[in-house]
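I would love for you to help me understand the pair of lines that follows before we discuss the fold together.
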Amino acid sequence: MEQYTAEDLVRVKWQTAVTSLLSNTKKPDLETLVKSWLTSPVLRPDHSNVIWENTYESLTKKEMIDRIQQIDWPDGLYMIQYSQLDASGFFNRKLKRTWSTWKLIPSEKQELQVSISTTTARRRLQEYLNTFFKNHVYIIPQSESNTCWYRILIFDSRYEETLPARASILIHYLSTEYLLTTTSMIRHRDFLHQATIHAFRAESLKQIPLTSKGLDKLTTLMDHRSSLGIFGQFRYAQQDSMENPLYFGPSSDIPRYEKEQYVGTREDIRRVIPIDHDKIKRRYDHVDQVFGHFPLEGLDSLKLTLEIPVTSVIKAHQTEPVNDDDDDIQPYVFSDVDEPSDPQEDDSDDDHTKKEKGGISMNVTFRGTNVMEGLRSLALQGWMVPPFPPWLSDLVASGSSAARVTNDHLYIES
């Protein structure tokens, strides 16, 4: 027998939001739900003589809705029934929302409880929110993506009967510390934040720089989120058998980039030969090593903070001394040879050291439909000259939309 919470069995009086939802529910989905309600001792109508075959089976959708409202549930549906109706067509509707990524931060005293059952997580979310609001949390499991969706209705007050215009959504990547969220009301965000901390017994919650209106893009990036370091080369584990020695499945139907050629057609390949063929080949090889063989699903923005010592910039732009007797003006030439310093200027050493440590700092922001794919295209066309910096492959693997680069080191904001 199904177990229902007190929040599940709150009556939702008939109102525009409920009738509209009934009208927008597809008839096969509505039939499935009504059948389950009629067989539930808790959800079935008060008059127990209602049988599907004798009542609903031959009705049109409009007749079904009229009977639901006027005969079988005249006082309104239970909250669990309303949530089931909403969830039935949930993935058929375009979710035009902005999604943010949260990361659970563990405390020093206990580990994160990210492997708890979804019913336990739901109960904990609901019990925390109950302290402040009338609310209802409904579970929508998604086994194929190894996620659990929590649809959260938060009312403005304990006594409010009008349904909220939209529900908040919390998506947990099962057994991980990562969640995606979209909140219907900004004023509820902090409460949902704290409820999530309570549910998974975390110390705190950090929003990490993965934000997008494209849920499918974020989901792909989350799949590769933990593939840094030594496992970075396996970031295409489920798709790219060429890069993953642990993959033994078929590769014939795996989408993959075509092998890069300087020219496309067979005739062009015969007639057009690059002047520096080896250079072109090395470039393509470097691109494969960094970006892999599988088509990248990337972000629509990337912010890089570059912090480079001044000496590195100077050395990168050094030139040989120019001796031109015909010119009275000699160009200034940078040199890494230390010149004798004036003892009287020793007091400024600390300031110089501080400036040197700070170096040159700048922010570079890339925007586009797929930033990582754009970087790959730039590399293929020679706008990025190999060898590429050693941190670039980790940046591609991380899927982060913000990072800091100092010399040859990469610090992912996570």
Q: What stands out?
A: The first strand starts at residue 11 and ends at 12. Confidence is low (pLDDT under 50) at residues 225-255, 326-356. The chain has three domains: 11-92, 99-223, 228-319+349-414.
